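step: validate -> pass
step: tokenize input -> pass
step: predict -> running
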Amino acid sequence: MKKDIFRSGFVGIVGRPNVGKSTLMNHLIGQKIAITSAKPQTTRSQIRTVYTCERGQVIFLDTPGIHKAENKLGEYMDDVAFETLSQVDVILWLVEPTSFSGAGERLIASKLKLAKKPVILVMNKIDTVEKKLVPGYMDMYRKLYPFDEIIPVSALRSVNTDSVLDAIFARLPEGPMYYDEETVTDQTMRAIASEIIREKALRCLKEEVPHGIAVEIQTMKERRRKAGRKPEDQPGDPSSDALDPAGMIWDIEAVIITEKDSHKGIIIGKGGSMLKKIATQARLAIEEMAGEQVNLKVFVKVRKDWRDNAGILRSLGYDPKELSRK
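step: predict -> pass
step: emit ->
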């Protein structure tokens, strides 16, 4: 009996801002790694996640939404997205169900033609339009590019997402297991914690502060937490300072960076209420991710025009020179 072929490879997820790339990737791997929000351009760097099953292993590369860059950060984000096309075996192009295609879509199509890789069009958010309209939208995109397959899905509602995995495995080559089967991402906990804080800030601030915020983790240390005082302990009993052999705690200090003094006040809120809300939601999410207690302190700093400052961008990890090394 012929042994089943183990397939593996890299799959790039590209598309315009806010089409649901991170939501789809999180759903396919069965765990939230990439942050999501209703605001466009939430993802700023390439995020790798890993899906492993008996059929093989897929390494997903989620990318920033492709858009007209208005600053150095925007240019970096577009570079990340287009550089990814040369690094993968299969490309997923995510779009929304619409009959409109503009300059952005034509630019992506031209880049795909240069990449010369199998391309699967994933039409996301089909739950937001009448079902009878979807075939017409799919036909419109067929005129734009000769896709290997077009799959209508709703990532948010888990509609037809299994078909995406089937289409990927049908086009991946036979290959090795690149990562241990327990691995779900190559992102460090420090990077994930930073992104969680940024996500909670975006969600809490809603439309009050534009996208000009970043998060920098200044310190992150793990230590064994104290066992704590028991009711029977007497004052001064040294046992109350004993270490808990089963418990660890992460001490994290983070800074939310914003471009304007007025935005700093909004992020902090009256009496520090908004910053406390952001920090509390972030702490709970990081604890859930890490499976350990977290002591999180969050501050706010103003760095004017940081999105156009190459030095600050590099310090935050947005360095175009790093793209070719990934």
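step: describe -> Residues 106 and 164 are 23 Å apart (CA to CA).
step: cleanup -> pass
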